[in-house]
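HOLO CASE FILE
Compound: N,N,N-trimethyl-histidine
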Amino acid sequence: IDPRLTDSSPAAPITENGLFLADVWDGLGASPKALPAKYFYDAAGSALFEEITVLPEYYPTRTELGILDARGPAIAALLPEGAALVEFGSGSTAKLRRLLRHLPGLSAYLPVDVSGEFLREQAETLRGDFPGLAVEPVVADFTRPFALPPGYGDRALAGFFPGSTIGNFEPNEAARLLDVFGRILGTGATLVLGVDLVKDRAVLEAAYDDAAGVTAAFNLNLLHRINRELDGAIDPDSFAHRAVFNEAASRIEMHLVSRRAQTVRVAGRSFSFREGESIHTENSYKYTLDGFRALAARAGWASVEAWTDADGLFSVHALRR
Ligand code: AVJ
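Model generated. Tokens follow.
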């Protein structure tokens, strides 16, 4: 007997949007309320994130690009001739392109992403721009172990994980993820990753609550997305964007705070809010250089080098397993 047939509570349908609905029902039914940050990135959210990356207050993207430019030759020196580069989650190829300029000896580039269509488009333009490079997209969820295409098992491998995406994971989850990367890349591999640094509260909070309101729109888009895709009836104007540095946990938290007491409905279920009650929508962990080295060590990665910009805003780590 299908256990769902004997369960009296309504079950979310098991489709791609069914997972979204299940996560939304779970998250809004929990206390404190929370929603997974991965749902920010529908088409509208991805466009808003692109806008965030060029905001004056949002230092991570431009700072990381600067470090990759300046340290490209040093990074290249760490990778053996003929190595293949695996990128975990391939957003825009801007950062990769900065790195590729310095890596003429690279034999192949393997972007790993859940969106196959996006991957194939990007692969096409990259092949045009770097004719000597084999581009082999891998459609997979990089947070779980997956297999590389045949023929890459005995090649020298390097991993690339830019953007401080690692900061979206709880430290224990981040260590587990680094261990997954290590198993995929194998012994002797080099991993290059971007990690945002702990800094002044005012600088951090401005980066996640910009004057133009783009980050607020990015956060609130989650409610619009629920309305669009899940038959939600939430008034986004009844929620306020809030970004705060939780110093004890060393993370920026984003919240959507209910401006009034209210009940919202999503696909037939109701959720009530007190005035001022929040939905926790994102954590973005910030590390010290040594703090991140210690985390990496738990997953069997040794620090080879770590580079920062002159103002110490952001770091790029090279690790070896
Ligand atoms: C894409 C996860 C690195 O945490 O800085 C930007 C996402 N959220 N502004 C970050 C984000 C709000 C971003 N990451």
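CASE NOTES: Residues 52, 60, 163-165, 167-168, 208, 215, 282, 284 surround N,N,N-trimethyl-histidine (CB under 6 Å). Residues 59-78 form the longest helix (20 residues).
CLOSED: yes
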